[in-house]
Give the backbone structure.
Amino acid sequence: MKLTHRSLAIDTLSGELKLWLSAAAGRRFGLLSSLDGNQLIILLLDPGPGMAELWESPVHNNSYKSLTLRFPQLHWFERILWDLFGIVPRQHPRLKPIVVHEQYPPDFFPLRGRQFLPGDERVERAPVNYMEVHGTGVWELPVGPIHAGIIEPGHFRFSCFGETILNLELYLGYVHRGVEKRMTEVPWQKARFVAESAGTDTAAAHALAHAIAIESLFEVEIPAAAQALRTVALEIERVAMHIADIAGIMTDIGLVGMAAAMAKLRGTALNTGQLITGSRFLRSYVLPGGVASIPTAAQAAQVKVSMDELRKQLKPLLSMLQNNYAALARMEGIGTVKRSLAMEFGLVGIAARGSGVNYDTRSHFAHGLYPQEAPLIATEAGGDILARTQVRIEELWSSLDIIKKLISTGADAAVAHISLPEQLPANAQTAGIVESFRGELIHLCVTGEDGRIKRYVIKDASFNNWTAIPIAVRNNLIADFPLCNKSLSLSYSGNDL
Amino acid sequence: MLKLFTHLITQKRATIAQICPPLPETARGLPAITTQPCSGSECNACAQLCPTDAIAINDEKNESGSAKVALDLGACIGCGLCFQNCPTGTIAETLSTRNATKRREDLILTNDKALNGDKALNSDKASKNDNAAPKESQSTVPTAPTPNPFDRSLYVRVVSTGCSACDLELGASGNPIFDIERFGVHIVASPRYADALLVTGPVGKSMQPALLSCYKAMAEPRVVVAVGTCAISGGVHRGGYAQANGVDSILPVDVYIPGCPPDPWQIIYGALLGMGREGLCQPEKEIVRMHNQTPGLTK
């Protein structure tokens, strides 16, 4: 979508933000970042009318008073702002690196566009420090960056009393690859492949958010069939990954038979994706202008059969999980995130809806055939592992319905995609907001004088939701950590970029 | 519990019996170079479209009169643009799942014999490996002693440094459909008792010390497998400030498995290659699709 642009002075920023956010229900922060280290940019979302604004505020002497003090959900954004640009948010309560580690030189800030000047406030990078808990019997458990199973890397530092977790400190960034910088280095026609690789388990959602951001620059109309197929791709991804996440929970509870049966069903979902897109991960399918190809009516019929099959097979398995006392004992009241904290820290996706927050971007922001075809928002009040699992199950059913309904409207159409002009418009700002299976995913694109991408910001759902895991595990057993973790389904690569 | 048991025993066998079969017809395969002559740099469609600059075209003609094409499968992310847009059929699509190699240079597909042996599709893979033997001794890559100590069992430590797609496909290769464990491959939770180090992702700067310490913790003999295009070359991330240029920039690699992500069968083939058990795969007729002609053409 196109963004309304507003410039304001940094000392009025905090007050203006407060005013704007409280002016209508549901208004929230999309992201906070910078273009080149000389200013703050803040994307503000207004889910009611499905609009967004981009605020810009120049930073003087390389620092400003931290906004986290007033808006706790910005704490992670301000840390990464310092990480990437070297801008110092003064009085930030926990300023330490997220993605740029001590392997890099202390004054290296990868996206910073200008040299430091005399008079600039500076904080150099130092090895990360962990908050320590002191007291008799308190001990520390370091885990990672390499984990025991097949999973992305990240470091967790638990402070425990006996088996009970008192505090969890996160240190991520091990899969920092420089995605945002790379987005500005390649020709825009090839940028979609980089966007997908930000997190390939979310390839369809990333590709869609990217496509929307690019298309909004040109203000073009996308063929209806392509819009339907984009929606289908997004939902196939959701089905496959929700199945994977529920299977993960089953594995960690010890229900390996069920988990194996789920793994097989995930195969059905992936093969459906492959049928339409040629890729189990729906890669290179959604592109600026439309989609790569149109399935035939026969393929669409096959997709419908697969969806019916999935529903039939999932039903007994999921009901077994929901009625298994051992499973319920592991999920009920464990890993609780209160609604007030979910709101305060701006959680999104399953983590928010499992805590009773009624926010699903499919109901608010245009992407694919949303919001017209948006399902009812599935929420649960519990805030625990069970609540998040229930939300996943509800969403599985609605996604299967959406796929069945929309696949036929997309099949056998004549035009898969329209071609876009070679040159991007200069000095424009757009965003693509998509509900990935993890939640709100934002791609923000800003072009420069020369019509090239000047700054590209990717905000994965996990960027908001990593904060939830230390909250969820507090006062729970170490043995319940894997379950809490699976139920939040956090992406390392989407966060680290 | 009884319900679950009933459910499980009423399931039909999910496991695919054939080992490393071709990808399904619906899949988009990896590119392959055929003996069809290329018209040279005046076309250049593939090289321009390639998102990772994996294709180089040299107008100098080879002995059959075609411009020389070199395609680095180790940089290929499998987008399919090259073979979909090749007017001469020089670059086609292969559905083979047996793409892993033991040497990095074998991933460079070409119709230029002088550059890299005859790797156009009419050559057969077995003889290529024989020719490779003398070259291998000069390379810095250590080879596992013969006979292969891992031919019946391979304990695998997986280190992820990437975007999790390869990890998910690795996980899938252990599911009931592909069942990598039937070949004696077990995923283990520590490098201390692992035989093989499977690395996914491009190994950015922040992950390099951890990966090295994992490698050092392994007893010899050990093999290192680079799973996926990022692990081989860095893929779309190559050359950036994060120095995410693949595993072999910091460790010797024994097996390279291309793909973005590789299909579970491609991963299994790579594991079998590391065990010296690739002979388990029945001989297959490689299915090659040329997009400028009738699709589904079998060569």
